[in-house]
């Protein structure tokens, strides 16, 4: 007999988000700036997105900064692209170096059972070369795409205040 968690995982539907830059492969790791209810994630973007989110100078190292408001849960850790198949959502279409939203999320359902907030109802997963970021928040906003990580980090820190 399957458990409630296993059966609810079968409802998880992984959808690629096209409006957010893809993470770069083999690049610097992402970083998080967070407060109690707000998470800002910055990461280097894939070269294939330079033209779409640019223009950039040839010596730029473009980073994206994404704000997740009303965050109920977040984590950054394993697995990375090399062992992504062990992630519970891998069989639902989770792919490497991509930005996803999970519709009918079992994680959102689990958190709703223990949390008293109505705002955080969306589950986001961003896969990187060495790690995976997951977040349950009310929404996301691409704050900007910058020519360097230092600019992205300054922006991230200014948003958390």
Overview of this structure, please?
- There is one protein chain.
- With 161 residues, this protein is of the alpha+beta class.
- It has one domain (4-160).
- Helix content is 19%, strand content 31%.
- It is built from four helices and nine strands; from the N terminus they run αβββαβββαβββα.
- It has a five-stranded antiparallel β-sheet with strand order 1-6-7-8-5, covered by helices on one side. Strands 2-3-4-9 form a four-stranded antiparallel β-sheet, covered by helices on one side.
- A hairpin with a 4-residue loop joins strand 7 (122-127) and strand 8.
- The longest helix has 12 residues, at 149-160.
- It is globular and about 50 Å long.
- Mean pLDDT is 87; it is low at 1-9.
Q: Rough shape?
A: globular
Which stretches are poorly predicted, pLDDT < 50 over at least 5 residues? 1-9
| Percent of sequence in beta strands | 25-35%
What is the number of domains?
1
Largest sheet descriptor:
5 strands, antiparallel
Overall number of strands: 9
How many helical elements?
4
Q: How many whole angstroms does the radius of gyration measure?
A: 16 Å
Compressed to H and E, one letter per element, the order equals HEEEHEEEHEEEH
Structural class, by secondary structure, is alpha+beta
| Mean pLDDT score | 87
Neighbour order of strands in the largest sheet? 1-6-7-8-5
The percent of residues in helical segments reads: 10-25%
What is the end-to-end distance? 48 Å
């Amino acid at each position: 007999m399957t458990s409630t968690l296993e059966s609810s995982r079968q409802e998880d539907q992984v959808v690629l988000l096209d409006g957010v830059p893809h993470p770069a492969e083999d690049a610097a790791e992402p970083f998080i700036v967070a407060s109690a209810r707000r998470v800002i994630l910055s990461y280097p973007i894939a070269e294939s997105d330079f033209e779409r989110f640019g223009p950039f100078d040839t010596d730029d190292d473009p980073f994206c900064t994404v704000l997740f408001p009303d965050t109920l849960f977040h984590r950054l850790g394993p697995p990375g692209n090399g062992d992504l198949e062990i992630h519970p959502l891998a069989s639902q279409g989770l792919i490497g170096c991509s930005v996803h939203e999970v519709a009918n999320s079992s994680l959102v359902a689990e958190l709703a059972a223990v949390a008293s907030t109505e705002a955080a109802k969306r589950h986001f997963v961003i896969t990187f070369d060495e790690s995976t970021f997951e977040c349950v928040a009310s929404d996301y906003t691409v704050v900007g795409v910058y020519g360097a990580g230092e600019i992205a980090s300054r922006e991230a820190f200014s948003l958390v205040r």
